């Protein structure tokens, strides 16, 4: 089939009925659904007809080789105009007009020949960069860890939230469009508080990181920059792919604890200055949080202080209101200055700062009425004579204590003898008895490996407190005050007193050892005493006893452990300020701050100056050892 026939067949399949093809052009025009009339103009043949409005016709374009190269639909809304015909003479005139009249035909031909020559395009591809602006090697896909590729951006985002650092992406492109390389630089800036928290954990990292990734894909280049940041932090011992340290949570907890301590100290100031209990009027301020107003009476003067800053929660807003009320130079301080109470306010603040845990307590005793004094005077007939007798006994007691302390200092001994003075032979005999008891207990546990005593010994050996047994004994030999801090269940309450007693008996000082252990509650004192007696395979009242209110099972006079409440030891200090016969005082759960514990710490610190042989052991699960060490004067 010829080319013309194939073209005619393709036009017929497209819906063109009667095409009219000119002899000297490559255009075929046809109209669908119309009778076509031919009209000749010169050497070309055209088809023309007045078409109705919005008639549709199609135009097909043919190449010189007879192939169909274009086929489109056209819409005509007006009369088909008569085609314009330009003769060869008109074309020659147009070419002459296009030529420059000042140029010769040769110059024009040469210019035309040179204009047809297209210049060759030269594309220069810049060399690939290997290092970024900070001198760190740029990470390309060939050197990246493909396991981190899917989740590297999520790791960086999570670390940004927990480690409080900020990130910024810079994008650059090198090379032409079809061979472009994306360079994505990740700038990371660390927070100062987060850096301090990490340094406290032994992790030291710089404050800024610059990491660059490069790839033909922009998204992959960003991921390569994140992978390079993860690798960079891994060089400093911080593996974000394994575990991200929650620095933000630790900082938030520390700030909350600091805020609560400041609020508690402000409440102490109000209580110590005799100010009534504050009342709060808290209102919600929409998205801004809460705003609180604190009201109280100061020496009969009503005061109302508003905190305009507010807080995110109701508790925070009330705490900030108290801080504003007690801040230096505030409205409350100005009123106290007018009343002449500035010195007392400064003294209260100084006591709070010097307290080991920033806490003080006030003891309020209401004044008795005159009628009560009269009734007491009648009931206490001969009161003046009894007071004179008490003063005389007190003077004799102080003279005896002064003489005893002076004799001890002259002898240079650390043994503080009891009221009933014993001889050296008696002490040696008692030490032999104590050592025999310890040896019998040890042999009993070794003789029966499945017995109760062997089981108790195995349990004691597995407690965490065993690791510091020797350190505790050595510290008590060189220091008067020792702080023991350990978690709940480590064995502080039951094992520390036994370690001290067993070491004293082994060294022949059991007769000069008497340990008093304080507990904040009666039930704790009784239960711990019974537990230690069970571990020592003996009944309560021999080497272990207790003394609480309305219940007492006292141990033997020496070589013993006695558990008491804090109030019982305070009353004993009132009757016996030097604690004669006591060699060790253990304060358990000392972090439970109450007024009895505070007074006991003050009295024991003063007693250590006159009793160089006395040893004080402070035990708690959560305790600031440095602050207590400074309070008792230890390094």
In short:
Strand 12 (290-298) and strand 13 form a beta hairpin.
Radius of gyration: 50 Å
**N-C termini distance:** 113 Å
How do the strands of the widest beta sheet line up side by side? 14-20-19-15-18-16-17
**How many β strands by DSSP?**
20
Low-confidence stretches: 18-82, 408-421
Describe the structure.
By secondary structure, this protein is α/β, with parallel strands linked by helices. Helices cover 44% and strands 18% of the residues. The chain has 20 helices and 20 strands. The chain has helices at 3-13, 88-98, 105-116, 152-163, 192-200, 218-234, 247-272, 314-326, 331-338, 342-354, 370-379, 383-411, 424-447, 452-461, 469-478, 492-506, 522-535, 566-575, 595-610, 625-631, and strands at residues 20-21, 27-30, 38-41, 44-47, 55-62, 68-76, 139-140, 166-174, 181-189, 208-215, 279-284, 290-298, 301-306, 481-485, 514-519, 544-548, 551-553, 560-565, 584-588, 615-620. α13 packs across α14 (452-461). The longest helix is centred in the middle third of the chain and has 29 residues, at 383-411. Mean pLDDT is 76; it is low at 18-82 and 408-421.
